[in-house]
Design a protein that fits this description.
This protein is α+β, with helices and mostly antiparallel strands. The protein contains five helices and ten strands.
Length: about 200
Amino acid sequence: MKQEINPKDSPRGFAFELWKTAGMPKVTIFKTFNISRLLKVAKRSRMKTNMLMCWCIGYAASGIKEFYTLPAGGHLWQYDRLAVNTVVKTANDTAHLCDIPYSKNVHQFNEDYLQLTRHVHDTNEDHLLGDEYMVIDTSTLAECEIDGVASVYSELFTNPFLAWGKYRRKLFKTTLPLSFQFHHAQMDGFEAARFLNKL
Protein backbone atom coordinates (compact mmCIF):
# COMPACT_ATOMS: atom_id res chain seq x y z
CA MET A 1 0.00 0.00 0.00
CA LYS A 2 1.16 3.55 -0.76
CA GLN A 3 0.68 6.44 1.65
CA GLU A 4 2.07 9.93 1.87
CA ILE A 5 4.27 10.63 4.88
CA ASN A 6 5.47 13.92 6.32
CA PRO A 7 9.18 14.16 5.46
CA LYS A 8 9.80 15.93 8.80
CA ASP A 9 8.59 12.80 10.61
CA SER A 10 10.89 10.60 8.51
CA PRO A 11 14.61 9.86 8.87
CA ARG A 12 14.84 11.23 5.30
CA GLY A 13 13.44 14.65 6.29
CA PHE A 14 16.71 16.60 6.03
CA ALA A 15 17.73 14.93 2.75
CA PHE A 16 14.25 15.44 1.30
CA GLU A 17 14.37 19.18 1.98
CA LEU A 18 17.92 19.39 0.66
CA TRP A 19 17.32 17.49 -2.59
CA LYS A 20 13.64 17.92 -3.49
CA THR A 21 14.26 20.99 -5.66
CA ALA A 22 17.77 20.14 -6.88
CA GLY A 23 18.23 20.31 -10.63
CA MET A 24 19.87 16.88 -10.67
CA PRO A 25 19.04 15.03 -7.44
CA LYS A 26 20.04 11.61 -8.73
CA VAL A 27 23.33 9.86 -8.07
CA THR A 28 24.78 7.04 -10.19
CA ILE A 29 27.25 4.48 -8.82
CA PHE A 30 29.12 2.00 -11.02
CA LYS A 31 30.26 -1.38 -9.72
CA THR A 32 31.56 -4.58 -11.34
CA PHE A 33 30.27 -7.88 -9.96
CA ASN A 34 31.66 -11.38 -10.21
CA ILE A 35 28.61 -13.33 -11.45
CA SER A 36 30.26 -16.74 -11.93
CA ARG A 37 28.17 -18.27 -9.13
CA LEU A 38 24.96 -16.72 -10.45
CA LEU A 39 25.56 -18.28 -13.89
CA LYS A 40 26.17 -21.69 -12.30
CA VAL A 41 22.91 -21.40 -10.35
CA ALA A 42 21.07 -20.36 -13.53
CA LYS A 43 22.45 -23.34 -15.45
CA ARG A 44 21.86 -25.84 -12.64
CA SER A 45 18.32 -24.64 -11.88
CA ARG A 46 17.41 -23.90 -15.52
CA MET A 47 16.31 -20.43 -14.51
CA LYS A 48 16.90 -17.34 -16.62
CA THR A 49 19.93 -15.25 -15.65
CA ASN A 50 17.95 -12.00 -15.97
CA MET A 51 15.24 -13.36 -13.66
CA LEU A 52 17.85 -14.28 -11.06
CA MET A 53 19.41 -10.81 -11.36
CA CYS A 54 16.00 -9.21 -10.78
CA TRP A 55 15.32 -11.49 -7.79
CA CYS A 56 18.74 -10.68 -6.28
CA ILE A 57 17.99 -6.96 -6.68
CA GLY A 58 14.66 -7.38 -4.89
CA TYR A 59 16.26 -9.51 -2.19
CA ALA A 60 19.06 -7.00 -1.53
CA ALA A 61 16.64 -4.05 -1.52
CA SER A 62 14.06 -5.73 0.71
CA GLY A 63 16.32 -5.48 3.76
CA ILE A 64 16.98 -1.74 3.38
CA LYS A 65 14.17 0.47 4.67
CA GLU A 66 15.01 3.39 2.35
CA PHE A 67 13.82 1.36 -0.61
CA TYR A 68 10.30 1.50 0.81
CA THR A 69 10.08 5.29 0.45
CA LEU A 70 10.07 7.31 -2.75
CA PRO A 71 10.18 11.07 -3.39
CA ALA A 72 7.83 12.03 -6.23
CA GLY A 73 5.92 15.15 -7.17
CA GLY A 74 7.24 17.12 -4.20
CA HIS A 75 5.93 14.49 -1.76
CA LEU A 76 7.46 11.58 0.13
CA TRP A 77 5.63 8.27 -0.23
CA GLN A 78 5.83 5.16 1.95
CA TYR A 79 5.26 1.65 0.56
CA ASP A 80 5.01 -1.77 2.16
CA ARG A 81 5.80 -3.84 -0.96
CA LEU A 82 8.53 -3.91 -3.60
CA ALA A 83 8.53 -4.89 -7.26
CA VAL A 84 11.26 -5.15 -9.88
CA ASN A 85 10.66 -3.87 -13.39
CA THR A 86 12.25 -5.38 -16.48
CA VAL A 87 12.12 -4.39 -20.14
CA VAL A 88 10.60 -7.03 -22.45
CA LYS A 89 11.27 -7.21 -26.17
CA THR A 90 7.86 -8.09 -27.59
CA ALA A 91 6.67 -10.12 -30.55
CA ASN A 92 6.63 -7.06 -32.85
CA ASP A 93 10.18 -6.01 -31.80
CA THR A 94 9.18 -3.15 -29.51
CA ALA A 95 10.19 -2.67 -25.87
CA HIS A 96 7.56 -2.80 -23.13
CA LEU A 97 7.74 -2.63 -19.33
CA CYS A 98 6.90 -5.44 -16.95
CA ASP A 99 6.61 -5.08 -13.16
CA ILE A 100 7.17 -8.28 -11.19
CA PRO A 101 6.12 -8.28 -7.52
CA TYR A 102 9.08 -9.21 -5.33
CA SER A 103 8.75 -12.46 -3.39
CA LYS A 104 11.39 -13.77 -1.02
CA ASN A 105 10.64 -17.20 -2.49
CA VAL A 106 12.73 -17.37 -5.68
CA HIS A 107 10.47 -20.07 -7.16
CA GLN A 108 7.39 -17.86 -6.75
CA PHE A 109 9.25 -14.91 -8.23
CA ASN A 110 10.38 -17.08 -11.14
CA GLU A 111 6.82 -18.24 -11.79
CA ASP A 112 5.54 -14.64 -11.77
CA TYR A 113 8.46 -13.48 -13.93
CA LEU A 114 7.83 -16.12 -16.60
CA GLN A 115 4.07 -15.62 -16.66
CA LEU A 116 4.15 -11.82 -16.71
CA THR A 117 6.99 -11.37 -19.21
CA ARG A 118 5.32 -13.92 -21.52
CA HIS A 119 2.06 -11.96 -21.28
CA VAL A 120 3.85 -8.67 -22.12
CA HIS A 121 5.67 -10.35 -25.00
CA ASP A 122 2.49 -11.80 -26.48
CA THR A 123 0.19 -8.81 -26.00
CA ASN A 124 2.64 -5.97 -26.72
CA GLU A 125 1.27 -4.19 -23.64
CA ASP A 126 3.02 -2.97 -20.49
CA HIS A 127 2.29 -4.71 -17.20
CA LEU A 128 2.52 -2.06 -14.49
CA LEU A 129 1.51 -2.64 -10.87
CA GLY A 130 0.62 0.99 -10.16
CA ASP A 131 0.83 2.67 -6.78
CA GLU A 132 0.75 -0.46 -4.65
CA TYR A 133 4.47 -1.19 -5.05
CA MET A 134 7.73 0.75 -4.89
CA VAL A 135 9.23 -0.35 -8.19
CA ILE A 136 12.94 -0.78 -8.83
CA ASP A 137 13.57 -0.28 -12.55
CA THR A 138 16.12 -2.31 -14.52
CA SER A 139 17.36 -2.36 -18.08
CA THR A 140 19.48 -5.01 -19.74
CA LEU A 141 21.45 -4.29 -22.92
CA ALA A 142 22.62 -7.87 -23.42
CA GLU A 143 23.90 -7.30 -26.96
CA CYS A 144 26.56 -4.81 -25.86
CA GLU A 145 29.34 -4.61 -23.30
CA ILE A 146 28.70 -1.44 -21.32
CA ASP A 147 30.10 -0.03 -18.10
CA GLY A 148 26.74 1.40 -17.05
CA VAL A 149 24.05 3.95 -17.79
CA ALA A 150 23.55 7.45 -16.38
CA SER A 151 19.87 8.18 -16.90
CA VAL A 152 18.30 11.57 -17.52
CA TYR A 153 16.48 12.91 -14.48
CA SER A 154 12.77 13.63 -14.74
CA GLU A 155 10.31 14.52 -11.98
CA LEU A 156 8.17 11.72 -13.42
CA PHE A 157 10.97 9.17 -13.00
CA THR A 158 12.37 9.07 -9.47
CA ASN A 159 12.53 5.29 -8.94
CA PRO A 160 15.85 3.52 -8.35
CA PHE A 161 17.31 2.28 -11.64
CA LEU A 162 19.87 -0.44 -12.40
CA ALA A 163 21.33 -1.15 -15.82
CA TRP A 164 23.79 -3.68 -17.16
CA GLY A 165 24.93 -5.07 -20.50
CA LYS A 166 26.64 -8.21 -21.73
CA TYR A 167 28.68 -10.05 -19.14
CA ARG A 168 32.41 -10.52 -19.65
CA ARG A 169 34.01 -13.94 -19.51
CA LYS A 170 37.56 -14.16 -18.23
CA LEU A 171 39.78 -17.16 -17.54
CA PHE A 172 38.56 -17.92 -14.02
CA LYS A 173 35.50 -15.70 -13.57
CA THR A 174 32.69 -13.90 -15.33
CA THR A 175 32.09 -10.25 -14.49
CA LEU A 176 29.22 -7.85 -15.02
CA PRO A 177 29.56 -4.05 -14.75
CA LEU A 178 26.38 -2.52 -13.39
CA SER A 179 25.14 1.01 -12.73
CA PHE A 180 22.80 1.95 -9.90
CA GLN A 181 21.00 5.28 -9.97
CA PHE A 182 18.97 6.57 -7.02
CA HIS A 183 17.32 9.77 -5.86
CA HIS A 184 19.38 11.38 -3.10
CA ALA A 185 16.21 12.26 -1.15
CA GLN A 186 15.43 8.53 -1.00
CA MET A 187 18.81 7.35 0.28
CA ASP A 188 22.40 8.38 0.85
CA GLY A 189 25.60 6.77 -0.33
CA PHE A 190 25.75 4.65 2.86
CA GLU A 191 22.48 2.86 2.02
CA ALA A 192 23.39 2.61 -1.67
CA ALA A 193 26.74 0.99 -0.79
CA ARG A 194 25.00 -1.38 1.64
CA PHE A 195 22.58 -2.38 -1.12
CA LEU A 196 25.39 -2.99 -3.63
CA ASN A 197 27.40 -5.01 -1.10
CA LYS A 198 24.33 -7.12 -0.30
CA LEU A 199 23.62 -7.57 -4.01
